[in-house]
Amino acid sequence: MPAHLTHQHCWSSLPSPSVREAASMYSTAVAIFLVILVAALQSSEPPESSFPYHIPLDPEGILELSWNISYVQDIIHFQLQVQGPRAGVLFGMSDRGEMENADLIVLWTDGNRSYFADAWSDQKGQIHLDAQQDYQLLQVQRTSDGLSLLFKRPFVTCDPKDYLIEDDTVHLVYGILEKPFQSLEAINTSSLNTGLQRVQLLKSEVPTPAMPADVQTIEIQAPDILIPDNETTYWCYVFVLPPDFSEHRRHIIKYEAIVTEGNEALVHHMEVFQCSAEFESIPQYDGFCGSKMEPDRLNYCRHVLAAWALGAKAFYYPEEAGVAFGGVGSSRYLRLEVHYHNPWNIRGRHDSSGIRLYYTDSLRKFNAGIMELGLVYTPVMAIPPQETAFVLTGYCTDKCTMMALPPSGIHIFASQLHTHLTGRKVVTVLARNGQEMKVVNRDNHYSPYFQDIRMLKKIVSVFPGDVLITSCTYNTEDRKLATVGGFGILEEMCVNYVHYYPQTELELCKSAVNDGYLQKYFRQVNSFNNEEVCTCPQASVPEQFTSVPWNSYNRDMLKALYRFAPISMHCNKTSGVSFQGEWNPQPLPEITSTLKEPGPNCPAQQAPSHTNPTVVSAAGAEAES
Amino acid sequence: MPAHLTHQHCWSSLPSPSVREAASMYSTAVAIFLVILVAALQSSEPPESSFPYHIPLDPEGILELSWNISYVQDIIHFQLQVQGPRAGVLFGMSDRGEMENADLIVLWTDGNRSYFADAWSDQKGQIHLDAQQDYQLLQVQRTSDGLSLLFKRPFVTCDPKDYLIEDDTVHLVYGILEKPFQSLEAINTSSLNTGLQRVQLLKSEVPTPAMPADVQTIEIQAPDILIPDNETTYWCYVFVLPPDFSEHRRHIIKYEAIVTEGNEALVHHMEVFQCSAEFESIPQYDGFCGSKMEPDRLNYCRHVLAAWALGAKAFYYPEEAGVAFGGVGSSRYLRLEVHYHNPWNIRGRHDSSGIRLYYTDSLRKFNAGIMELGLVYTPVMAIPPQETAFVLTGYCTDKCTMMALPPSGIHIFASQLHTHLTGRKVVTVLARNGQEMKVVNRDNHYSPYFQDIRMLKKIVSVFPGDVLITSCTYNTEDRKLATVGGFGILEEMCVNYVHYYPQTELELCKSAVNDGYLQKYFRQVNSFNNEEVCTCPQASVPEQFTSVPWNSYNRDMLKALYRFAPISMHCNKTSGVSFQGEWNPQPLPEITSTLKEPGPNCPAQQAPSHTNPTVVSAAGAEAES
């Protein structure tokens, strides 16, 4: 949908203020702002016509964002389309989607003129002009049914008020202005209709491998579901592959989402899981996930075949690898899980969204595999309540990679990070000879509500003897009791599902603290607090954690324990059996040099940029005279 | 000693290289550097003729630094004088006086031309040109016996390679170039004669109070000492005030150092202590401090009357306060302590340095007092070995200030920080209602070898109910056993002697961890490490600390203990008796909001400055043609 520059209208439909008011506002505007008629002046810059990425910002699809990325210039071009007559719009990014302390662009009108500015909101939500104007407006276009903005911004601006755009999750925020404001400072986000949308802006743009001539597709779609009018619905549907899929093995080489038209803003994410081959059959099911009606056997449909989240495009496997699919020992039963996000409780929408798998009979050189890194699902790894940034770390040790990986190594090309509700950051680092070498995947703005499979920008090769360290940061400010590790949604996980080739027997390379050392910790808690409480060993670990009085000493001691105590390793084959050897206790890997988290490279000297809003229409001013 | 711009000589006395070499060097110089004949061009800037501060940099006084401070422009002007013919000189600042990672100016010659540059040394000591040239050369002068440089630099340059000049201790470094270097990059500090000198560059410049007409002086000087040819000598001398000093009270209102001419580079610091009045007399002594010959009673001469360190000027008391001196109940015995620093083992120097006290019979409105903040001298506060930055904190609690301070508060005008050998940073912060309000005194480059009394730039008033928190950071990398608190030089202290008025009964407001909680810690260490070791309670605390196996868990637990455990308060009167009330255990003060350590305010936008060395003499170039 190419956007062409049209004649500039005064796009505000609100009545003009009196001439006197307008004159006063005008002189204020001139005094404060250097008037630049950018839309006219900059029309020589050709509009960006190619936006490979699209995402609706609000649940009704009133705002739609499209963007493209230039990795040569480190710049993003954004196209923001707003439906219907609006006084203005506000769009930007913030740490975790809050409207306070956000990096924003604002298009507003004083009822007379319209302005565009790079702005920021303070901790009370009040908007201020940025000292440095880094969002550059390229075009404002008024169409019959709304408004379209074209603007660009570098990934890194070196303005402390700006969001640093990195590879990880970005929390986009938006607000709709329904009336004029005398000035930018008069706007407070708390008085607006606002919302957030999570997306990975800086997607990996590895070249798309060519599809073979014999490529075939199969669509795993839910059958005409009436989307419930609840904010959150996880819908589960069992899909059975045709019998001939058991005949021979194929390779899945690509998949993509099929989203029912009109529901783009409601379908939040989808995953296809393959069921365990140990069951001859899996009962049919088409209903809420986790409902009492759901057959228990669906718990054995956990092997991820495909995962898609809002804003993601088609997922291509590297040209030398594909996911083994079909044939002997491969279940024909798949579970499709669709997450509907319907915060405005829209009713009556029917949906048949799903995922299209592309597969081929011409097997590629390597099978692709998925390996689980991080923490074992066990309550011994726990987070005290009221923590803002508690870190748990799981290891894949040199001993395990030495035993399980081929001498030529494995090549990780994609990664899906996973925690439950309190996860805020996840990172996996590769270490060799005690030194951290590189980041496999890092998300400093991780959200459990946005778990997509991400292609890595560069393939990471892991060799025997390497160590993979996965750390998750949790926020338990709203919890009253300790949060222990486990499968439950109120328990926690710390996992990185890495997609790699060639497939090995190693399916799970995770750790947890050695239980004996945890029991020493509980004895220390008892002895230090000469107890009313009892974290007695006959109790279960979750009960023991529940009885810890969480003063600063017991918190610090738990951190110290996790930093010090030997671990129990799970170095397991696909069959669930561990590789041969002693795995508990194992020494904690020793890391002598750590990677610095790279900050933006901001030189002290920088070319000054203009620090004034842009007047986007002179029509109002003309009306004055 | 005003420096006048004279005709520019080629100040290098070394032979010129061949014309061909010179031509090659010349073209290199032109290619790399923009040639600016600064000394000639900038002669219009008047030389700074007033340098209130002077310090010899090396023990022979070959290099002498003078400087002045402009708190309006936040700029220091430096005058560096170098005696004798030298190929060049290097001067600058680094974190703790090391020649690596230093911020430097370099004046060097390639045998032909001479250059001046703002530079930095890397972690191997190699010199590089700074991308941003912040030291500005104003004048180079060749006199009959050496060289004189005049240059200036802002306190804050926002160049990451530059030292941030703050109020605290600055480690100046210098090096002498004895031969030409083809380029700046050819210089490595490890091949030079180098050294360091500690100084407070940014001294407080509060206006000097007028002296009353009846001001009198008394000189406390050592009698003609032959300075020993050891690197470090602490000389102790007992001085007896004339009998009439017992007759009535005076006020000391000023003091200053008297340094024997020629020994300016050897006399490192001096202190005058008053002895306890409980002894009728103190034996005469004139010898090494701490020697076996020293009478034990000198241990009772610990009340600081005056302290001076290299680079410090006269110390003036605020005009409304003076130190009570003489009269009934005041000892006539003083101990003068002189620290000679003679690293080059110079022999045969005689010295009669000392301190001149200015006093008056016209008593001022208030007596000034000294209060000790920080940690009690007790082994319960200990630092594990091999720590690079272990922090111990002492408190002066609200309960104690509530009991001891007048409703109108006290006013701190000066501060002397004190630790033993492993101290690296000291800070005292004032907190009110659980919130840190302001820094009383902070030294992030503290050195136990440089303990002067510093005037505060702003008087800090402390009211009943306020809390004073003193934290010291220690480096025990070179220790094999724990370092416990105590009086010994290998034990540690954490003290801030604050000078204030009006004098109160409160002499000591310090804390230590409650011993019962420390014993719980030792029990935990035992239980966790199911012991070969025994940190048994029948052992002394230093013995218990000695037997702790210092793994990361026991280190972290000790930190956690000090952050959590109740304290034992010493809220003591001058008599050594504590104020009435329960002082052990006391709750640790709760601090809900802490002060951010203010970084330099470096805007993202900055005017670019030239990034080339300055050619300081054209004489060599003329020789080529």
UniProtKB/TrEMBL annotation, chains A, B:
Q: Where is the composition biased (Polar residues)?
A: 603-615
Give the enzyme's EC designation. Answer: 1.14.17.1
What's the cofactor?
Cu(2+)
> GO CC annotation: what is one?
endoplasmic reticulum
**What domain of life does the UniProt record list for this protein's source?**
Eukaryota
Q: Which UniProt keywords are given for this protein, alphabetically ordered?
A: Catecholamine biosynthesis, Copper, Cytoplasmic vesicle, Disulfide bond, Glycoprotein, Membrane, Metal-binding, Monooxygenase, Oxidoreductase, Signal-anchor, Transmembrane, Transmembrane helix, Vitamin C
The record describes its membrane topology as: Single-pass type II membrane protein
Task: Name the SMART domains on file.
Answer: DoH (SM00664)
Question: GO terms for molecular function, please?
Answer: copper ion binding; dopamine beta-monooxygenase activity; L-ascorbic acid binding
Please report which protein family the annotation says this sequence is part of: Belongs to the copper type II ascorbate-dependent monooxygenase family.
Oligomeric form and interacting partners? Homotetramer; composed of two disulfide-linked dimers.
Known role: Catalyzes the hydroxylation of dopamine to noradrenaline (also known as norepinephrine), and is thus vital for regulation of these neurotransmitters.
| Protein name as it appears in the record | Dopamine beta-hydroxylase
Please report the organism this UniProt entry assigns to the protein.
Peromyscus maniculatus bairdii
